[in-house]
Design brief:
283 residues, alpha+beta, Chitinase A, domain 3, 2 domains, two-stranded parallel ribbon, 12 helices, 15% strand
Length: 283
């Protein structure tokens, strides 16, 4: 209860301050040329190259964001009894924005989010298939020639063969039901799953290689992936919904604060920037 009272008081003070200052003239923030050059130099030291124009603009904008949130955080008293530097204050401001968006969504909101973002929750296709397996360990150098013979036999039939009499025993069996692509990848490997995803149903195809050996596959049924009902993915939808709300709340808070500041960014001397880039390239 104490934590909620403290947080509520901080939020009340913050938004009271925002409302009060909205009518005031923007507070000026000046990004000096030397500051821009320092940002460029830090980037060059980290990445061993000078920043592009777009990257430098992003660095400056991030510094502006930090400066504004730092000032507003101090004005709200968030830095009291806190010895962590300005980045910590910025983080506190962002955490407050996230807390404001932490209300639990209703069933209607979750259903609407699922309907608006079906691609995020779409299930994989599911395959039911049989296989004829040729063990690389058991057949050794004869694996390739044996695979050609079995291919000639299977290519003439469109019905599942008696896999037990043609191939080798497989630890996990010869029949697999309703397996997703990720399930197949975990069992047989990524390359096998990729190739199997393109196999048509109703006829034998192969060989498809895996770390176990060679596989001839007969796909009995392919069920297309779909968007599951909310009951099956409620937790995932809730996590996504909360994440989006938190990001929106943080951005909205920053926009509401930023327009109160007059931003002035001085261009760094080209000679200084070139010198910093040259020295870092030399190192």
């Amino acid at each position: 209860m104490l934590h909620f009272l403290v947080l509520g008081s901080a939020l009340f003070g913050l938004f009271s301050m925002v409302d009060k200052k909205d009518a005031e003239a923007p507070t000026k923030v000046t990004i000096s040329a030397s500051r821009v050059a320092t940002l460029a130099d830090r980037f060059a030291r980290t990445w061993r190259r000078p920043p592009t124009e777009q990257e430098l603009q992003g660095l400056v904008e991030d510094y502006i964001r930090e400066e504004i949130l730092y000032r507003e955080g101090r004005a709200a008293g968030l830095d009291r009894d806190d010895f962590v530097i300005r980045r910590r204050v910025r983080q506190k401001m962002e955490f407050l924005a996230e807390d404001m968006a932490a209300a639990e969504p209703s069933e209607e909101q979750l259903a609407a989010y699922l309907a608006s973002n079906p691609e995020k929750f779409l299930t994989d296709d599911r395959l039911t298939f049989h296989q004829v397996f040729l063990s690389a360990t058991r057949r050794g150098s004869a694996l390739e020639s044996d695979a050609r013979q079995i291919a000639e036999l299977l290519i003439r039939t469109s019905v599942p063969a008696d896999t037990a009499t043609i191939g080798d025993p497989f630890l996990l069996g010869e029949e697999f039901r309703e397996m997703s692509k990720s399930d197949i990848a975990r069992t047989f490997g990524e390359d096998f799953a990729e190739q199997l995803s393109a196999v048509a149903a109703g006829r034998w195809q192969g060989p498809i290689g895996s770390s176990f050996g060679a596989h001839f596959v007969f796909v009995d049924e392919r069920v297309k992936g779909d968007v599951p009902p909310l009951d099956r993915v409620r937790d995932a939808v809730r996590r996504e919904w909360l994440n989006v709300r938190q990001i929106e709340a943080e951005q909205n808070l920053y926009r509401s604060l930023r327009h109160r500041y007059q931003i002035s960014v001085e261009a760094p001397p080209k000679a200084a920037t070139s010198k910093a880039a040259t020295s870092n390239t030399a190192r």
